[in-house]
Amino acid sequence: MQIKPILSALRQHKAGTLLIAMQIALTLAIVCNALFIIQQRLAHLSEPTGIDEPDIFVVQNEWVGKLSTSQADARMQEDLRAIRQLASVQDVTPSNSYPLRGSGWDDGIRLKPDQLQDTSGSTVYFGDEHFIDTLGVKLVAGRNFRPEEVAPMDMRYSLSPPVVIVTRALADKLFPAGDALGKTIYLAGSPTAIVGIIDQLQAQSVERWAAAFAHRSVIVPRRLAVSLGAYYIVRARPGQLDAAMRETPRALFAINPRRVISDKDGLLSFAQVRDRAYERDRGMAILMGLICVVLLAITAAGIVGLTSFWVGQRRKQIGVRRALGATRRDILGYFLTENLLISCGGALLGVLLAVAVNLWLVVRFEMNRLSLAYVLAGVVLLLLLGQGAVLAPALRASRVPPVEATRSV
Amino acid sequence: MFGYYLDLALRSLKRNKALTALMVLAIAVGIGACMTTLTVMHLLSGDPLPGRSQRIFYAQVDPDITDKEGQREPPDMLDYHSATDLWSARRADRQALVVDSRLKLHAPDVNLPPLMATMLSTTTDFFPMFDVPFQYGGGWSADDDARHARVAVISADLNLRLFGGADSVGRTLRLRESDVRIVGVLKPWRPSPLFYAVAGGRFSNGDTADFYGKAEDVMTPFFTGLEINDGNFQQFNCWGIPSTPGHLQNAPCNWIRLWVELGDGGKVAGYRRFLADYAAQQKALGRFTVAGNTRLRSLMQWLDFNGVVPSDVRLQTWLAFAFLAICLFNTVGLLLAKFLRRSGEIGVRRALGASRLAIFAQCLMEAGMVGLLGGIGGWLLTLAGLWLVRRQPAAYADMAYLDTTMFLATFALAVAVSVLAGLLPAVRASRIAPGLQLKAL
User: DSSP H helical segments within B46-179, as ranges?
Assistant: First the structure.
């Protein structure tokens, strides 16, 4: 295939060539970055919490009326016993929060009492001796809480647990040497000892501000005993989630009806919790995907339109070429190569633009650097799109009969 | 002349329906994307108090004793001591302390279960200063502030939920364990953003959609609110551990906002001096460690400082414009093809005496028609886009509607874009040499 005649023919159509190339360049720049944003959001969205999600649901229980700490604690214990007796329930633990809830108690951890800056941020989860089993997290070192270590707590007491369990991510951050077990740390100003390390437990917020301590959680042996109530995290027996979610509120109202379990979010399976937590990320990924598809469609339509025009304009030349012995394949090849040349030019400019756009995003929106794989994927995608779009007009061109050459010349 | 060109344009558009449809679609999609994001931007970046915002200021001092240098920004809110000192000095034309909290609310004479509500505790100037519209009754007096009077103003929304929208002035509400008398009911009031509650934007990494939430359900005098909901107040930040969580009056915590109204530039300078003098005096008393770290930002400066427009929205706006640019290139290419394909026809018209300008105008008319049609499509797509925005889980979602300005802007933008797209093809078309074309016919 001769490239020189194609180039000299393109010189006759500077405006059109330039327009297609520009369109391809811009589309490439946007599609690369959009794909990259989609991938980042999806990666964020599929981050594991570390808990046994399919079998877990959460009850938000609020008491009606004012209760003292001991009253609230007694009622909670009664609730937990009732839930545990259900055939469909494996275990239950009370807490102040749970992963992906959106907000809750985050606090700084220090290694010395007089330290001014926190060594790390962390998410604080309350839990009793059933916490680890209920959530299905793996204890990788040390031990679980003992029942006598777990104490009821009102919001007004200061948090000073004798012992805590931390996630491996937090342990590694605090003690990079890997000897966190048994060490003393300062949580909310008071000293406490690490007695256990669990494999993984995600923070309550998935927002960007909490990303720094996303998996650095600390579990304190406390039951939140306040009249506002607490969360009961329930683990159903495998496959019995629906039954457990039906039976639990019924059992709770049977022992004490003076409580509020909201219709809206009082009872949430963990799948629902996950959906809510990532609603926005998913929305952005879908939007970006939609934009990519529409952009590619518009660019393809533009190429089809302009090439069709060129084919119509050159019918006579095509006829002459055919009459002089060019095969249909030659004509088809001509238009495909022409498009490839324009697309390559556009893609080259597009790669530069994509990197520039990404750099700007890094500065303005604190995004990550675009990986080269996305640029390459974008280039391949657009070259294929160009060839696909040009195929129909090129086929039409190849069907121009040689006799066209003899008409009205 | 105009009518003739219009007729020509319509004929030409009808001749090649597929190409016309493609151009109209490209413009419509570009305009739809642009106008959807622009409408959201317009909604989110507007002035919440048009005509008044330049007189409203937000005061900041730095009581944090762990900040030794005072080089960093002062905290976004005030501690109780500083806030009440500055407020009671009454150096501004109007001043309002603002703090919000959550509590359980119940109307004793209405048969509805108690509900969790948001409460704004503020001082009497809040209502005139922010032009808050009342449906029934009005705000409370300075005397009510001073007496810690058990009165409240409720939102239109709460009034509808509890009292079916009737005039509820004089009726009683139970806030936690305290009864308050309703003295005013607001009209529906939805400032965008909820400017008086904005703070901490610089720590949010661009996730600022929550600044566009609804106004509080119930409003009480500042000191009344502190008494009623004692123990349930949230700090913005603390530089020491509060002895009683939720009770922050003597705590080393920042949790109160102070808004002031200052009529002219002289008063603004005066208030700046007053803040500096206050900080210096507090330093002399040993309560502050730094004196110079005070700020007085105007409302719009404060919103700007907090970067209230969410970064996702800004990103989408840029994206939409890039989108429009691609649609523009597309349309330029297609128009070029369309005009040049009619070279023969244009040659005849030129030979029959049409000037270059006339050809140029005819081509632009055709481009404008494409724009108008694209505008109609774009308007429909914008409505669809805004419907999608309203289904998003963002705090501002319920406000995303197309207003008249943006409706007109849709068509203006569509026609402007298509005429812009038509410029190059029209110039090319008007340069066609009639002789060459006639020979080929």
Answer: 80-89, 126-129, 142-147, 156-163
Q: Which candidate in A205, A291, A382 is best for mutational testing of the B interface (most B CBs within 10 A)?
A: A291
Helix (H) or strand (E) segment spanning residue A120: strand A120-126
User: Count of residues for chain B?
Assistant: 441
Q: How far apart are CA A185 and CA A122, in angstroms?
A: 12
Cα–Cα distance between B229 and B441 in angstroms, integer? Answer: 89
Residue B130 contacts residue B257 (beta carbons within 8 Å)? no
pLDDT by residue (tens digit) across A371-394?
888 899 999 999 999 999 999 999
The alpha carbon of residue B101 is apart from the nearest alpha carbon of chain A, in Å, by 15
Q: Per the structure block, which two tokens stand in for A5?
A: 């005649």
Q: What angle do CA A394, A395, A396 make, to 5 degrees?
A: 90
Which residue of B lies nearest to A297 if distances are taken between CA atoms? B26
CA nearest to A301 within chain B: B22
Radius of gyration of chain A (CA): 32
Residue A409 has which token pair? 């010349």
Least CB–CB distance from A302: residue in B33, B206, B333: B333
For residue B171, the tally of other CB atoms under 10 A from its CB is 18
Neighbours of A2 (CB within 10 A): 10
- Residue B259: which pLDDT band, with cuts at 50, 70 and 90? very high
Cα–Cα distance measured from residue A152 to residue B156, given in angstroms and rounded to the nearest whole number = 41
Tokens representing residue A360 in the block: 């700007």
Per-residue pLDDT of B188-213, as tens digits, reads 999 989 999 999 888 877 778 888 98
Give the span between the Cα atoms of B41 and B310, in whole angstroms. 9
Pair of tokens at residue A122: 């962390």
Rounded Cα gap, residues B27 and B200, in angstroms: 40
Cα–Cα distance between B201 and B89 in angstroms, integer? Answer: 29
Q: Are A62 and A103 in contact (CB under 8 A)?
A: no
Q: What is the pLDDT of residue A157?
A: 65
What pLDDT shows up at residue B342? 82
pLDDT at B245 over 50: yes
Separation of alpha carbons A184 and A177, rounded Å: 15
Please work out, in degrees rounded to the nearest 5, the angle formed at the alpha carbon of residue B102 by the alpha carbons of B96 and B103: 115
Beta bridge partners of B121: B99, B220
Token pair 């123990």 in the structure block, residue? B231
Packing angle between helix A328-365 and helix A279-313, nearest 10 degrees? 150
Tell me which residue has tokens 């937000």: B58
Which of B336, B393, B428 minimises the CB distance to A279? B393
What residues in chain A have per-residue pLDDT under 50? 409
Residues 304..363 of B with a Cβ closer than 8 Å to A: which?
Answer: 311-312, 314-316, 319, 322-323, 325-327, 329-330, 332-334, 336-338, 340-341
Decide if B144 contacts B132 (C-beta within 8 A). Answer: no
Contacts of B22 in chain A (CB under 8 A): 301, 305
**Residue type at B351?**
A
Start-to-end C-alpha separation, chain B: 27
Q: Are B45 and B309 in contact (CB under 8 A)?
A: yes
d(CA A147, CA A145): 6
> Is the separation of the CB atoms in B261 and B125 below 8 Å?
yes
Q: Which of A296-305, B25-34, B146-155 ranks highest by mean pLDDT?
A: B146-155
pLDDT for the residue numbered B225: 94
Q: How many CB atoms lie within 10 A of CB A12?
A: 11
Rounded distance between C-alpha atoms, residue A195 and residue A149, angstroms:
11
Q: Is A345 helix (H, G, I), strand (E, B) or coil?
A: helix
Beta bridge partners of A110: A186
For CA atoms B219, B224, B229, B235, give the dihedral sign: positive
